[in-house]
Every structure is written in structure tokens, then in C-alpha cells.
Amino acid sequence: MSSFPYHGVDGHVGNTPLIRLRRLSELTGCEILGKAEFMNPGGSVKDRAALGIILDAEEKSLLKPGMTIVEGTAGNTGIGLTVIGAARGCRTVIIIPETQAPEKITLLRTLGADVRTVPAKPYSDPDNYNHIARRLAEENGWFWANQFDNTANRLGHYQTTGPEIWNQTDGQVTAFCASIGTGGTLGGTALYLKERNPAITTICADPYGAAMWSWFTNGHTDEDDGDSVAEGIGQSRVTANVADIPVDKAFRVDDQTALAILMQLLREEGVFLGLSSGINIGGAVRQALEGGPGQTIVTILCDSGHKYQSKLYNRLWLAEQGLNPEKPLESLF
To answer: Which pathway does the UniProt entry assign to this protein (predicted)?
Structure first.
């Protein structure tokens, strides 16, 4: 028998390729590169957070095979926890706002999660989905993943995403841009890259209605400047994964800009993505335009468009939101 070290799906999170976004790179004179996180086993960047949280909990004897993981999630972290948890002998209970794309809820149930949909409520409300998950953990003796304030999330990106980007660009990366859901992706990756080269510009791409642009720009979370249909990003508070991370600048990216980018990538480059990826790429383009040609800018392609076909890729739904899928890319910059 071969001695080659084969692994289950939990051994294949990360090491995703960098994809050159050709048209945007040509338009800006920069190399705009997307980390293809939709190639992870659970289909999103959140697989990294899920694996990091599970491994940390196992190391601390907080989680063992046969136990239950519970989490409040907009979908992708729940999918990651369910897939990786199953591979490591655990079941999952997922609390998800009922406003999330139905494809996510269906997929979670298909994967075997016990899915409980709840009304969408702000974090300040005791019936916010995160608080419900915490209470269920306390009442049942389950392990609460606590993705927002468990810094094992951020550590996972510090240990994997940052080093991968550094190595894949041969240390030539000049800027890194990511939106914030929990803050783990931007936080862990920025911490690593800044250690390797403090001159790397780290950027938060924030949808309208979220508070992180205000936090990094004005030092408070009081801005209320609109709304976004993006799922899984758009934080209203400074989580433990966000606190004290080195972010140089923040950009607001509107949904129409993000949508135009996504449609161009799908039509011309065969890349099929969710709206959070469009927000990220929009931030990378802003950095390209502000910093000028010659930069190497890396961003995160969070997940594929498969989970958003009933919304983002449904022309009737887009029309209801006032979004135009035919808007030319060049008109936005």
C-alpha cells in the first residue's frame, strides 16, 4: 500500500489558487488577483474559519467526536462547520435568519445540519440569531463556535490565508482588500502580511449600511448611510476578530458596482460569484485607481453564485431592488 498521506475533506481546506481578473487588471494597469475560496470543500472562505475554530476547540478539549456544534450564521460558516464537523465526527445545529437565500437553508439541511430559521433581529436584541445559538449551547452542553468573537477564526487566516498569498505572489503583493463579516479573514490575513512587509496596504471593503467603514475612517460605528442586499458581510459592531487589526483604509462599495463586476466576470471570464466577492473586488479596484498602475492587489472571492440564483441572478428580483445587471463595467469607474 502507498505511504502517500491521503486526507478527508477536512484536510483540503485552503491552498486555493489566485485567479487573475483579466479585464479589471487591464483597465487599471494593476494585477488584480482573486483568492478562489469557492474552491474549498464547503464552497466558501468560511471553511477556513470553521476548521480553525474546530481544531482550536479540539486542542482545548472543548470539542470531541460525537458532540454537537451550534452556531448562528448567515449560511457559509454553518456550511463549513457542517461539512468539516461531519468529517471529524460532530453534528451541527445551525441558527440562521430567515431572510437568507433559500439555497443556503436547503443546502444546510441536505448536508445534515439541524437548521432552525429565526426572524432577523439586530445584535442588540436578545433574540438575535447569535444570542439564540449561545443560549442553546448553555442549555444543552453543546459547543458554541462563536465565529464573531472567537479569535481562532482570525488565527486560521493568519496561519493559512496570509502565508498562501505571500507565497503565491512571491512576496510582491502590495495591497490586500476584504470585506468584514466576522472580521476573521481581513484580520488574520492583514496581521500576517503586515508582519512580512509593513508597506502592504490593507483595506476594508464595506457595503453601505455597515459600520466598519465608519470605524476605520472615523473611529466610531455611528454611520447609517444606506443598505445592501449582500449576505454574510456588513458588520455593525467591533468584534474580537476586528479589534486592533492593522487596516490602512476603508472603501464604501455599492451594490450596483459589485453587481456590474460580477456580471462582467461571468460573461467574459467564466467566474461565477456571490455579491460579497463583488464588494471585495470593487474595493480592490478603488485601490488600483487611487494608487495607480503597477500594484499587485489581492482580494477574496468568498463563494460562488450557486447559492444566490433565486436572488442575485434572478432578473425580476434585481429589478425589484433597483439593480441593473446590464450596466457597463466602464461606467462605474
So the answer is: Amino-acid biosynthesis
Supply the pLDDT for residue 63.
Answer: 97
DSSP H helices, the chain, are: 22-28, 46-59, 76-87, 102-111, 129-140, 152-159, 161-168, 184-196, 212-218, 255-269, 275-291, 315-320
Among the options 46, 104, 194, 311, which is catalytic? 46
Cell numbers at 173, concatenated: 503583493
Q: Select from 261, 153, 257, 245 the least CA-distant residue to 203.
A: 245
Per-residue confidence (pLDDT) for residue 250, from 0 to 100: 97
Q: pLDDT category, 2, cuts 50, 70, 90?
A: low
Does residue 1 have a pLDDT over 70?
Answer: no
Query: Does the pTM of the predicted model rise above 0.70?
Result: yes
Contacts 24+ apart (CB under 8 A), 195-199: 196/162, 196/166, 196/171, 197/171, 197/173, 199/174
**Which cell numbers hold the place of 320?**
425589484
d(CA 146, CA 284): 29
Would you call 35 a catalytic residue per the annotation?
A: no
Amino acid in position 121: K
